[in-house]
Amino acid sequence: MRKFVFPVLLFLCGNLFAQVKTVTPPKSVIPFSESLQAVVVTTEDWSAVQGEAQLFKRKVSESEWKTVGESFSVVVGKNGLAWGNGLNKLPSGSNNLSLKIEGDGRSPAGIFSLTSAFGTIEKTDKIKLPFTKLAETTECVDDVKSFHYNRIVDRGQVGIFDWKSSEKMLAVGVQYDLGIFVAHNSNPVEKGNGSCIFLHVWKNESAGTSGCTAMARANMESILHWLDAKKNPVLIQLPAEEYKNLQKSWKLPKLK
Question: For residue 144, which phi and psi values (nearest 5 degrees)?
Answer without folding.
Answer: -65, -20
